Request: fold
Amino acid sequence: MSKNLNLIIIVIMTLVFIFVPIIMKKVVWKKLLSQLDNEQYDEFYKTLDSNACKFSYQAFNREYMRLSGYLAQRNDAKIEEQFDLLKNMRISNKQKASVASRGFYYYLEKGKIKKAEGMLSYGKSYIDEKSFKNMQIQFSILMKKEAKYIEDCKDILNGMWDGKSELDNNKKFPVGTIQYLIGLQYSYLKDVDHMMEYFTPALENLAGTPYEEDIRRIMNNLHVS
Reply:
């Protein structure tokens, strides 16, 4: 009887150790998402610093989620500090790639060329080859205003779309973005005919986005109607 009781206790304790952390992790995650969605930032940061969260998530995951809060608040000073903190943590190569990619696109949007370049350099050894190439292309075109990747972008476009079939709504934005990048490079070369070859369909595919506004601005500057 004693042996059976001990066995039952061991089984129960094993189940507790297995399932309690899983349940707690789900509860904490749901709470964090709700607080972030409802812009309850003070509560969000308190939850991140709670014992339950520390028990459920590793330091990198908590600090990466904290970055999400700062990004949602558009708190540039805190974002800068958080990127520095994450880069100096002892983390896996996959996590380094994630930090580099997120930082690159943040600085790309902000137009901070040196910072974006720094994130590219930091992530070079960790980001997969295809993603890194795409980041290099965007950096060259959007930040350095170079026209070095016209053919590369055309290859990407051809891989996404045959140029004839009707585009589904979920494909219009990615196709339009590449058309925009090609047209943008031709605008640097003042090659208006080729620019409009790609800007014209891009206007339709990117209607209602900031890219449409930028295309019209470029067309206006080059006196194209």
User: Anything to note?
Assistant: Residues 147-225 form one domain. The first helix runs from residue 2 to 37. The mean pLDDT is 91.
